[in-house]
Design a protein that fits this description.
Number of strands: 0
Strand content: under 5%
CATH topology of the largest domain: Helix Hairpins
Shape: elongated
Number of helices: 6
Helix content: 55-70%
Oligomer: single chain
Order of helices and strands: HHHHHH
Radius of gyration: 21 Å
Length: 156
Amino acid sequence: MAKRNKKRERGARSGTLRGLPHSLPSLEMAYRLQERAAGVGFDWPDTRGPLDKVREELRELEAELSAERTAPRSPLPGIKEEIGDLLFAVVNLSRKLAVDPGAALERANDKFTRRFEGIERLAHERGLQLGRASLEELDRLWDETKAAEGGHGHSL
């Protein structure tokens, strides 16, 4: 009986996705899963498909948020699932664009850190306490910091 169960377990691990260590960080695992699937033809011919999938997953997340009306600090299972699907789709888009998603996220983290430190510096110079400033005040400081470094658009 134990031998049969081991054989069944091995069978479950066979195929294209076999051999990926479960210890991989989630971002890298998503990339590698999609890379392997693409290797056997399960892939879009261009970036339009992955971009449409990102939009679809975002719409599904929005629908889930509307349906569940939950606080951001206590997401319900449907929201967690849709966030996961959205992240998976973004990783696939980055793979299709030959962008390392981990490196891209690291760069975004660095940019956010630099800009937030800019907010802190401006707030200190102007005698504002971050914890007591309004979101509008903080947003203006963010925009100033971003403009000073030549950034585009609005982040918050």
